[in-house]
Amino acid sequence: xxxxxxxxxxxxxxxxxxxxxxxxxxxxxxxxxxxxxxxxxxxxxxxxxxxxxxxxxxxxxxxxxxxxxxxxxxxxxxxxxxxxxxxxxxxxxxxxxxxxxxxxxxxxxxxxxxxxxxxxxxxxxxxxxxxxxxxxxxxxxxxxxxxxxxxxxxxxxxxxxxxxxxxxxxxxxxxxxxxxxxxxxxxxxxxxxxxxxxxxxxxxxxxxxxxxxxxxxxxxxxxxxxxxxxxxxxxxxxxxxxxxxxxxxxxxxxxxxxxxxxxxxxxxxxxxxxxxxxxxxxxxxxxxxxxxxxxxxxxxxxxxxxxxxxxxxxxxxxxxxxxxxxxxxxxxxxxxxxxxxxxxxxxxxxxxxxxxxxxxxxxxxxxxxxxxxxxxxxxxxxxxxxxxxxxxxxxxxxxxxxxxxxxxxxxxxxxxxxxxxxxxxxxxxxxxxxxxxxxxxxxxxxxxxxxxxxxxxxxxxxxxxxxxxxxxxxxxxxxxxxxxxxxxxxxxxxxxxxxxxxxxxxxxxxxxxxxxxxxxxxxxxxxxxxxxxxxxxxxxxxxxxxxxxxxxxxxxxxxxxxxxxxxxxxxxxxxxxxxxxxxxxxxxxxxxxxxxxxxxxxxxxxxxxxxxxxxxxxxxxxxxxxxxxxxxxxxxxxxxxxxxxxxxxxxxxxxxxxxxxxxxxxxxxxxxxxxxxxxxxxxxxxxxxxxxxxxxxxxxxxxxxxxxxxx
Amino acid sequence: xxxxxxxxxxxxxxxxxxxxxxxxxxxxxxxxxxxxxxxxxxxxxxxxxxxxxxxxxxxxxxxxxxxxxxxxxxxxxxxxxxxxxxxxxxxxxxxxxxxxxxxxxxxxxxxxxxxxxxxxxxxxxxxxxxxxxxxxxxxxxxxxxxxxxxxxxxxxxxxxxxxxxxxxxxxxxxxxxxxxxxxxxxxxxxxxxxxxxxxxxxxxxxxxxxxxxxxxxxxxxxxxxxxxxxxxxxxxxxxxxxxxxxxxxxxxxxxxxxxxxxxxxxxxxxxxxxxxxxxxxxxxxxxxxxxxxxxxxxxxxxxxxxxxxxxxxxxxxxxxxxxxxxxxxxxxxxxxxxxxxxxxxxxxxxxxxxxxxxxxxxxxxxxxxxxxxxxxxxxxxxxxxxxxxxxxxxxxxxxxxxxxxxxxxxxxxxxxxxxxxxxxxxxxxxxxxxxxxxxxxxxxxxxxxxxxxxxxxxxxxxxxxxxxxxxxxxxxxxxxxxxxxxxxxxxxxxxxxxxxxxxxxxxxxxxxxxxxxxxxxxxxxxxxxxxxxxxxxxxxxxxxxxxxxxxxxxxxxxxxxxxxxxxxxxxxxxxxxxxxxxxxxxxxxxxxxxxxxxxxxxxxxxxxxxxxxxxxxxxxxxxxxxxxxxxxxxxxxxxxxxxxxxxxxxxxxxxxxxxxxxxxxxxxxxxxxxxxxxxxxxxxxxxxxxxxxxxxxxxxxxxxxxxxxxx
Lengths: 711, 711
What we know:
Two copies of one chain form a homodimer.
Chain A: H1 2-16, E1 31-32, E2 44-53, E3 59-62, H2 68-85, E4 100-107, E5 121-125, E6 129-136, H3 137-150, E7 152-154, E8 157-167, E9 173-179, H4 187-199, E10 204-208, E11 210-211, E12 214-215, H5 224-229, H6 237-249, E13 253-257, H7 265-270, H8 299-315, E14 320-322, H9 331-335, H10 337-346, H11 351-368, E15 372-376, E16 389-392, H12 396-404, E17 408-411, H13 423-427, H14 440-443, E18 446-453, H15 463-467, H16 470-479, H17 487-501, H18 510-520, H19 526-533, E19 535-537, H20 543-546, H21 558-561, H22 567-581, H23 590-602, H24 604-612, H25 621-643, H26 651-663, E20 669-671, H27 674-690, H28 695-702
Parallel strand pairs in A: 3-4, 4-6, 9-10, 9-18, 10-13, 14-15, 15-16, 16-17, 17-18
Antiparallel strand pairs in A: 1-2, 2-8, 5-6, 5-8, 7-8, 11-12, 19-20
Helix pairs in contact in A: 2-3, 4-6, 8-11, 22-27, 23-25, 24-25, 25-26, 25-27, 26-27
């Protein structure tokens, strides 16, 4: 009897086990501390003793539902794993009983990636098996990315650490907008960015397809749109289909944007009859806000839009269509007597109301073509139906307002990666801030967010370095639990992710040197590279003032080579803080700091030579002087602090003047290490006060020493 | 009367001048010495005092014949010039009277790029104008590349130096073979390589489209060929057309190769009925020579080839079609009784004769489709008609033989860039060696040559670094006068060209760091990069023995990151030579050498740490030991030489043993700096002899000191 019972039990267990992901594979169930590199951080993750070793007999098996999309995902997974480990997986011919990854996927999920796709997955990594369970193929794809990020090595080889993961996204809409209107990007650039999006679990590619500066999608109904509005730089419908399918393979939606009624100069080059002024129009070559706008008063315009958007509704399968709607100042409307007469006749009081009228009619067209409308903040007018989605460049307050009124919304304010702010600044922006006053029901209207890569100053060589790796941190904000907020740890993981993204063909790391070599026409770029590590592009939209250019200008200057979020500056801030906090000894990092400043100082001669023979670098000449001043100020401050000397009475003033000069951008880049040097200089000047303070008081004081500087 | 004559003369001169390229624009006609970076070197070039300054008002004007192809070429020229200078050229709106490039092109030239295209051009660069005259659009395109290479700068800005150039190619067939059979390369990889080919004036893209390992062109007649023979990695006919047009735009012919009757495994996967054994066949995954071959005895096979090659003849407009014909050992033929019976019946004595029979029938098919046949050495059989072209992997002697028999031929022996030899070795190979015994008439049969990028060990990430920059030197050999043979100067110019090629998207420089970062999963690659600079991939086909792999293996190892032709090794050879020749003082470069060896030695700890935590790098661990031994040997030898000490009796033996170990490849890479260290070590041991020699004798002796080493 007993044996029988046992047998029955075993059978029951065997039947049950495959569906129980938490099958206790690990040697012990004692949770261990483990520093992982996962980004985004999963909603639940625990590590245990044990590992799944990776050898060339590793197998990946889809044990339940599978299809071509999952198999392609597995193939890509294997290829990347091979690339990292140097192993060739035998797969089919591998012997039984060795390590394996079992992908247990329940269902295909949505045929067309959709907002309500179930992206969850679970992982159980034990002694010889990675068990990945997911209700949908997209969930399985998300899980495979996590497995890849878990790849670890020691001197014995590569392995996956024993772990359990239960994961699903916090927000359903996690997007990246790429503006290929201002500067065109070839399909391969978009494809590698889609791969990167999938790697960090983003799920919406917002394709900003039309702008004043370019109409970039083929229209078979109105070929003059792309033929006359794009300089020949547009996507054929075949190419668009290929991109959409490429995205679908990776569980990514493609939301097209046709920005109207403003931002529409390129439409009017071939179709001036749609405009609110007679034209003729030419493709806009500058950055800015321009007057051309569609005429919202004429039935022909709506007929045209009906036909065109109908064509696009067939091409783009996503349920949503973005109609832009931003930054139309209505100046053409003001000057057009027919439009003014129309407004008077209809009782339309102002341009806002006229745009609302336009949106009303547009919405009907979209509804006819079975698309939900999404548009920028401006579309939120009293009459807007509740099924429209608000895309907020204004901020979380505007978004919360919309949510209270019952509108779905997504956030982009705070995620403008074209503004060259450091990752940390984007990372703290939450679509639903911790102190939200929205009810839980209202919070459901906040669908997520989108990083926006506006295209004024990016081309195929530089766009990756503006998107990555910073967007990975935004992806984490949109996927991971709200409590994932450790900035230092984010940066640690971001460095690893950045290297891993390169395997997808991204050029954010490699093209820095390429551009520096081109600027110097030489392979000897070390002095220039050191300078590049100390600067960042100017923030916001100041580049245009500093360095006037058009859409036809080359994107090959020093400002294009340097990247946002200087790692050197970040480390220096930490080092200086710790050095100054080491009062009254001032020993911690002292040698490091001295070496750093000497390296900057000693770089000057070589740098001057490089800059001198490269006219394209003349604009950054003054930076060399600034760096010399900085390094000298830093060295003097160090010496004063360490020798406890009081500086000469005018020393602080003299150094401050130089430092203030050094904070001014040159050639559209700015030295971002000034703050830390200023902190040292101020500390040196204030050191006598330390005698009157407790150590604790001084440590508190240290953090205030950098105030008054640009950063 | 006198005034009148002068006027007439002036009128005559004015009328004549526009057609006279040598219009004496420069301030003085005194030829000056000028170190240019042109590659290939033009057949005639002289420099003068004076320059054409480049500002944003530079204009490029096509003053005579122009068409879409020339305009595109000018647009690309302007874009690259903008990219290098950072300037935005106003073009249309530029004021009159400023600098300009006038392109005076006479005729369109061949509609389809052809062997007899006139590629000549002339340049007259004077005070404010670059005058480029060419009989054809292709000539003008070649000239524009020269103008770009003439771009120079000083602290005042960018300019073109005053110069006169008269240029045309020495050989008409200057090719690059890319084998995408073994490893597929996406269209964008081919496109950037076509751009690079145009930059160094190559004019034939030899597209090796079929191999045992892959059938990579869509056939609408026999879709099973690409569907079953390519793993889905093939070019659609649309893509092929796009590549052909892309090449045509750059004056490059596309010669397709369908390698038969051997090298045809991939054909037989979908069409086993064409084979000489019943099959079934699977795509070959290994490198080597394989047995499958088409059955040359059956009419159905020729019918199939007629249809297929007819389809391809329409797709590829070039006058030539390459049918391979190499490396068929006929083992399947030997074993097939029907084939044996056929041979007996027809009186075909052996497999060579059988292949000749096959070629005869193939030739008729090609003739029917209006294509000239080109094939590897093997096709040269007694019955071969004189209009076939011999492509020689055997060498200049075989080529000369063929020429004597009246066959046109092209050389690839000596240009096998997949063998990882240094540039200098390819550079000295001349399709018509200086000591040729061919008559001038016979020499005309030598059409030129082709660099061959065989695909066993290259993928999209690494192929550029195997082709470039070395192929630029081969391009020079095929274009420039035979007397252009200065190796040092070639290397000087090659370094500049290498950087310039990057603007076309080539990854030969940038991807080194990418692969090293992937291997270490980190951005801290300095110690590994130092090691990489001291090694090269093993030569010839020894990689396969050292590091067994298949076509499905990753190409991400250390051997893939490192490149042929180590610059460090080349410089070290020179430095050591000069140091040892500086007898008896031994001061020249002594400090440099000491610093170099200390840098290697001091790299060991950091290197060991990196290698230790990266299992994919374990294969190169022994190299770290070798480098330590090398650096110590070098330092000891330096010290002995400088202090005039005689080493201990067993010192030379001990060091030699270590050096011999260090010459052995590990992980399919070899330390190429050993020779120079051996030279130092031997010199240190032989120093006592110096006392018995004259300085002149010693200097002569120095060059022999490296003998006995691998390199």
